[in-house]
Amino acid sequence: MSLSKVSKVTLTLQEKLDFFPALASILLAGFYALLTGLWRTERQAKTLFLHLGYAVFRKATARLTPSQLQYVSPPSHKIYEIYTKKTGASPQSVELGNGALGHWIGDRNADNVLVWYHGGGFGLPASMGHFKFYAQLIADLKARGKSVAVFSLTYTLSPIATYPTQLRQAVECLRHVLAQPNRSPSTVFMGGDSAGGNLVGGVLSHLAHPHPEIKPVELSSNLGGAVLVAPWTLLDTEFPDQEIYHGGDLITQAVAHPWSSAYLGKATRDYYTDLSTAPVDWYSTFPVESVLITGGGNEIMLPIIQDFAAKFKEGFGKVEFFIGHRECHVAPVYNLELGSKEKTEQGKKVEAFFTELMV
């Protein structure tokens, strides 16, 4: 599949006309956040700027369908092209088969490679914040004496394609990196945010327990490590413990049903889609040296993430869990998308984790 033939979503006339009242409601939500944001609590964003950005995203994702959001968002590979043009880097995109594309950020011959799966409920493309995050991570690790490149996956968004398409594409992305000449699995790392964290868990599950519809991956040794930032590993249509949410997160419960339904389609949920539901011994044979799971102190999914991290640690052992104080869902990425210059606590932890494990 060529870059110009990546599948795109189509909308009905009614869905297109709906953008006008939706835009009005989003602007109103932003204006309200601006007025009320001067009196923020610990459960809300650290700055008025972030508070406003979170409110707008929250309203947009609650008001618009996954297809509508996708329709107005440039696809991931276009964002990558914009990023390389802005930074003066040469774009290096690879067709991975099965409709997937991979994009190199940094020197593909670096000592270490980080395969990253972006979030967005499986229905939103990678943002410019993702590519800023990759570049920041590469630069910061270089300052610590670590040579690393990022290989970012463009997978087919839902509802254009449904599970297990995205998991198959994520597996092929990792397989491509592992097939590089002289590339040891110990120098290959995986990372993902939100739905991308789901894919990290799904790929680790496939490596240990091959999915019946996906070709197995043979490893000569364990992967170097894996990071799951605010992983979405339980596709329930409701989030528990709603009292944790006081306007300090990016998302609301309104996204749970449409996003999970669009991803699953007619498929039945299993341990690959919902790693939180797997038995403890499912994790025990994951072929990776160490795992970091992070979450934001103000995010609506924190109770789910905490339960998942505890279960993962019980079954696997080498798992560290970290909570970023007063941070929202996928703050290391979305704060950069908004233009924030301040590093998040979760972002610093991810950097420290990779510094310790990379050669």
TrEMBL record:
Query: What Pfam families does the entry give?
Result: Abhydrolase_3
The molecular function GO annotations come to: hydrolase activity
Per UniProt, the keywords (alphabetical) are: Hydrolase, Membrane, Transmembrane, Transmembrane helix
Q: Which Gene3D superfamilies does the record cross-reference, listed alphabetically?
A: alpha/beta hydrolase
Q: Does the keyword Hydrolase feature in the UniProt annotation? A: yes
- Transmembrane feature ranges: 20-39
Q: Tell me which Gene Ontology terms the entry assigns under biological process.
A: antibiotic biosynthetic process; monocarboxylic acid biosynthetic process
Annotated Alpha/beta hydrolase fold-3 domain ranges read: 114-330
Name this protein carries in UniProt: Alpha/beta hydrolase fold-3 domain-containing protein
